[in-house]
Amino acid sequence: MSVFPDLSRLLAASCGLFTLSLLSACSEAPPAPAETVRPVKTVVVSAGTGAEKLVQTGEIRPSEETSLGFRIDGRIVKRLVDVGAVVKAGDVIATLDPSDSENQLKAAKAQLDSAVTAEKLALSNFKRLKQLAPGGAVSEAQLEQAESDHEASLSARQSAEANVTSAQDRLNFTALTATSEGVVSAVTANPGQVVSAGQEVVRLAALAGRDAVFDVSESLVNSKAGHPTVLVSLLSDPSIQAIGRIRDVSPVADPVTRTIRVRVTLEQPAAAFGFGATVQGSIDKPASDQLVVPASAMTRDGTEPAVYVVDPKSSQLQLKKVSVSRYSDTEVFISSGLTDGERVVVAGVGKLRPGLTVRLLTEPKA
């Protein structure tokens, strides 16, 4: 009896068992990888953290700046000052050609002399007729006419005196004088130029006070900042500082930049705060009831602004839509969408997704 048939059956059974084991191994699913826990940096937002320091760059300008011009027409023959000249009240700044005014004054004086002579003659005639009237040598009508002539000559003399005064004033107006102590900040007319009455010749900046002038955004002016104390410092040397009070706010925005001009009067400024110096003004804006998050926390849900919030129970991320009231350089002010005490992710939000399990790195407060 041969052993080969038994060996063939044994080999066939072995091959069958090996095939079944291979099929069983292929039918088992690979084990799922463990979920990665992402470390995230977060802050806890809370109400009343809206306080911020607002900083703006501006320049120093005089509190008062006056445009000076002649009160009459004429041709400038001399200008005695240039930009930067310091003048006192009454100092002559420029003069006009006085020839026309001098001629008018001479004519007015001649008219006055004539009027004075005519008045003396009329008065003498009136007195003589008045003495003759009681004896009947002159009629009542002649006396009344003499009295009328005297009164007319008196009026003519008074008018001539007024003309002389006016001509003298006109001659005085050929010299342009400083109305107060100050420094010449601009010159707009030169010798030889014909100017009209009131046309600017120089601009005089008063030395009595200095203002810091800033062009700020409409949102800041319309905010609840009010009129706080302003700390003004030189941009070239921040250690030189002065306290300022808001003097006035322009009611009209600049048509190009849409900014509003604010003037801040400095209290006892140092000499270094010269006209034209670049300064930096800062105020502490009061806290608001809005929630504030760092600008790095912002992302989007579709087209709307959103932030990632960590669920304290599951440690998973939730994407929440928020309403933004305004922005600063480093912060975003949230008007709705967040509640006090929520934890917001503030770094790497572009690589996160809702439902992701995270681990907190730090626990500071916003």
From TrEMBL:
The keyword Transport applies. Residues 214-283 form the CusB-like beta-barrel domain. Signal peptide: none annotated. InterPro entries: Beta-barrel_RND_2, MdtA-like_BSH, MdtA-like_C, RND_pump_MFP. Keywords: Transport. It comes from the Bacteria. Residues 68-200 form the Multidrug resistance protein MdtA-like barrel-sandwich hybrid domain. Belongs to the membrane fusion protein (MFP) (TC 8.A.1) family. This is Efflux RND transporter periplasmic adaptor subunit. It comes from Rheinheimera tilapiae.
